[in-house]
């Protein structure tokens, strides 16, 4: 009866206060221990058993993380396993909250000194928020991701690398006003070494013609000589053509247009494209904002285009400008940086699109994912469609982390890497040049890895490079002798806007030539 832990009514006021905080601390560190020493021992034993099981699960997860951490990602993203985790986390949150409330009953607040009662109450509320609140919020985020992953990713069988590589087609689709159907204006291929994570990015201009289809493609029967019906058959029109006229060629596909694009790009590059991701360019803005923006080193002034002048293919003067130099771009400006081609060429735009994609991959670090998880999941659910299997998310996340700290090689299938804008290479492509150059980049990658391993295991470093192999020198539009360079400090937004308003497109074009020279800071 004199034990102050079980019988606080016989203890002094300071001892009762100390007892209250000790019991709260026990419930925080070893849930169930407060009940064992001062309350319902049967409840305490059950709670302590749950605590030990949780500790064992955490230890096991740590071991798995060291041996095969992609397995943990797959467990967190699997439809059934993630549901189990959500239920378990929610149940633990409620049970821990119950234990704290039970601990409050054991404390017997009526025995505390008047000044101690509010302090204990605040401490209890804070501990419940940190513990049960955190577990409940984790369950909520996991459920958000579960819904997003279920919407975005496919439940098809996993696929193996081809010739040691995973090849993904990334398309930026634009179904804006005045357009018939969706047109992928941004067409990129990301090829990743399945072992090292080394990445090569290929940019395909939207106006590329005569794309060939592999012999086993359903579209080979429709276009045996390639997608070659003239200016109407630029590659970004293929998506709409298949959706409207040849969807029956892909009876089992949820997106026949995307499947046909995969086949066409496979023919262009001479490699097998295994999966695609389609991003709605209108929703791309939300995705970048969910990341907190991206940082690029812009190579030249880029206009934010205004509306088209009725009856012409010209635009009103730009609504704004993106300046050269290191820029932190929000979603709106990142979208325009990637899509603008006014006063420049499609080929400059392709290079900027590659740079934006590289920036998103490099800057989507674990801290960003954790702090902005809900925004990213919600934005991704709205703007991304893909046929990547959900069962491979773990391995692909692991591969992406390997790729983050390595140099990304880039090659545009058109100027400046193949001919010039005046050569019409994308209209009459020479595939005897394209296929060897693609394989050459892969071979150079192997040689670079061998050299790196000889030099004390040093890597190729971070960053971003343009082109590869025996890339042809880039020819830029000649500038008048008295025209300053686009990066000259005297060039201002006001000066460019004045040129646009008086219609001096020749001077603006010379200043904006090569504005695709983008890199990562």
3D structure, described in words:
Strand 2 and strand 3 (199-203) form a beta hairpin. The protein has 521 residues and is of the alpha+beta class. It has a six-stranded mixed beta sheet, with helices on both faces. It is elongated and about 95 Å long. It has two domains: 8-152, no CATH class; 165-512, LCP protein (Aminopeptidase, 3-Layer(aba) Sandwich). It has helices spanning 13-29, 33-38, 41-77, 79-107, 116-152, 238-245, 256-269, 281-291, 331-339, 346-363, 366-371, 373-383, 393-404, 431-454, 493-501, 505-512; strands at residues 165-174, 183-193, 199-203, 275-280, 294-298, 302-304, 320-322, 325-329, 384-386, 408-412. Helix 3 crosses helix 13. This is LCP family protein. The chain crosses the membrane at residues 20-38, 50-71, 83-107, 119-142. Residues 183-364 form the Cell envelope-related transcriptional attenuator domain. InterPro entries: LytR/CpsA/Psr_CW_biosynth (IPR050922), LytR_CpsA_psr (IPR004474).
The shape is elongated
For the record, what is the CATH homologous superfamily label of the largest domain? LCP protein
Helix/strand-derived category reads alpha+beta
**Architecture of the largest domain, CATH level 2?**
3-Layer(aba) Sandwich
Count of folded domains: 2
The rounded Rg comes to 30 Å
Summarize model confidence as the mean pLDDT: 83
Number of helices: 16
- For the biggest β-sheet, the strand order reads 9-4-1-2-3-10
Straight-line distance between termini: 71 Å
Largest beta-sheet details: 6 strands, mixed
SSE arrangement, N to C? HHHHHEEEHHEHEEEEHHHHEHEHHH
**CATH topology title of the largest domain:** Aminopeptidase
Helix content: 40-55%
SS elements, strand count: 10
By CATH reckoning, the class of the largest domain would read Alpha Beta
| Uncertain segments | 176-180, 458-483
Strand content: 5-15%
């Amino acid at each position: 009866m004199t034990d102050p832990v079980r019988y606080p009514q016989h203890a002094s006021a300071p001892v009762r206060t100390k007892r209250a905080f000790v019991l709260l601390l026990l419930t925080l560190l070893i849930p169930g221990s407060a009940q064992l020493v001062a309350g319902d021992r049967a409840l305490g034993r059950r709670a302590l058993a749950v605590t030990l099981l949780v500790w064992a699960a955490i230890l096991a997860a740590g071991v798995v993380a060291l041996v095969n951490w992609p397995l943990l990602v797959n467990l967190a993203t699997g439809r059934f396993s993630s549901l189990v985790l959500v239920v378990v986390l929610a149940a633990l949150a409620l049970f821990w909250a119950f234990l704290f409330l039970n601990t409050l009953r054991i404390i017997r607040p009526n025995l505390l000194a008047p000044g101690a009662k509010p302090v204990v109450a605040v401490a209890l509320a804070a501990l419940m928020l940190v513990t049960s609140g955190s577990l409940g919020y984790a369950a909520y985020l996991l459920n958000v991701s579960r819904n997003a992953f279920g919407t975005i990713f496919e439940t098809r069988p996993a696929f193996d690398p081809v010739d040691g590589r995973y090849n993904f087609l990334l398309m930026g689709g634009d179904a804006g006003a005045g357009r018939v159907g969706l047109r992928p204006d941004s067409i990129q291929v990301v090829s990743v070494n399945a072992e090292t994570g080394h990445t090569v990015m290929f940019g395909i201009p939207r106006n590329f013609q005569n794309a060939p289809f592999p012999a086993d493609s359903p579209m080979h029967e429709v276009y045996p000589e390639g997608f070659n019906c003239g200016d109407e058959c630029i590659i970004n029109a293929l998506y709409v053509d298949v959706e409207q006229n040849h969807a029956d060629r892909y009876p089992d596909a949820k997106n026949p247009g995307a499947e046909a694009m995969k086949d066409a790009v496979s023919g262009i590059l001479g490699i097998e494209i295994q999966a695609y991701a389609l991003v709605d360019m209108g929703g791309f803005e939300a995705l970048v904002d969910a990341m907190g923006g991206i940082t690029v080193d812009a190579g030249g002034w880029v206009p934010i285009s205004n509306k088209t002048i009725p009856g012409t293919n010209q635009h009103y003067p730009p609504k704004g400008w993106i300046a050269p130099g290191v820029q932190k771009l929000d979603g709106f400006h990142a979208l325009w940086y990637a899509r603008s081609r006014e006063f420049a060429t499609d080929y400059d735009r392709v290079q900027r699109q590659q740079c934006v994609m590289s920036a998103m991959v490099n800057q989507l670090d674990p801290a960003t994912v954790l702090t902005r998880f809900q925004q990213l999941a919600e934005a991704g659910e709205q703007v991304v469609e893909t046929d990547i299997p959900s069962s491979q998310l773990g391995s692909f996340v692991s591969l992406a982390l390997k790729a983050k700290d390595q140099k990304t090689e880039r090659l545009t299938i058109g100027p400046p890497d193949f001919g010039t804008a005046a050569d019409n290479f994308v209209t009459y492509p020479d595939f005897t040049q394209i296929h060897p150059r693609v394989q050459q980049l892969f071979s150079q990658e192997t040689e670079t890895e061998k050299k790196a391993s000889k030099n004390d295991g040093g890597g190729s470093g971070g960053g971003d490079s343009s082109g590869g192999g025996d890339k042809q020198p880039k020819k830029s539009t000649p500038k008048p002798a008295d025209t300053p360079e686009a990066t000259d400090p005297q060039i201002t937004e006001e000066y460019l806007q004045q040129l646009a308003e008086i219609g001096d497109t020749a001077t603006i074009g010379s200043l904006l030539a090569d504005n695709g020279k983008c890199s990562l800071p």
